[in-house]
Design goal:
single chain; about 120 residues; alpha+beta; 3-stranded antiparallel beta sheet; 6 strands; about 25% strand
Length: about 120
């Protein structure tokens, strides 16, 4: 699957342009990269916002994350993944327009399952 099918909402492109967000565009491969640390990198990730599904037209009963990487990453205090304030979803800590912030994670970037 290519980056264009792994993101239908345009958010990967939007956030790849923000220096404080760990999403980058690799012009050599034409795909995005989620760089959580120097050693934890997700090449060609699923979009954390749409999971590759057309917004507002997602299939019902989407599978939950099967790889459990979000769960693993959240337990590592050196990575920018945390449980949201509501306690039932994940967030990606980052710097947005120079201010500390977080992006909500709806889909696992590694397997595309719902978060």
């Amino acid at each position: 699957m290519t980056a264009t099918t792994k993101c239908q909402c345009g958010q990967l492109a939007k956030w790849a342009g923000e220096p404080g967000v760990p999403i980058e565009f690799d012009p050599q491969t034409g795909t995005y990269v989620l760089k959580l640390s120097d050693t934890v990198v997700v090449p060609d990730p699923y979009c954390v916002f749409c999971g590759g599904h057309v917004p507002f037209h997602r299939p019902k009963n989407l599978p939950f994350c099967q790889c459990k990487l979000l769960e693993t990453w959240e337990k590592d205090p050196t990575l920018p993944i945390e449980i949201s304030g509501t306690g039932n979803s994940y967030e990606l800590r980052c710097v947005i327009q120079g201010h500390p912030g977080a992006l909500h994670i709806w889909f696992c970037p590694a397997c595309g399952g719902t978060a």
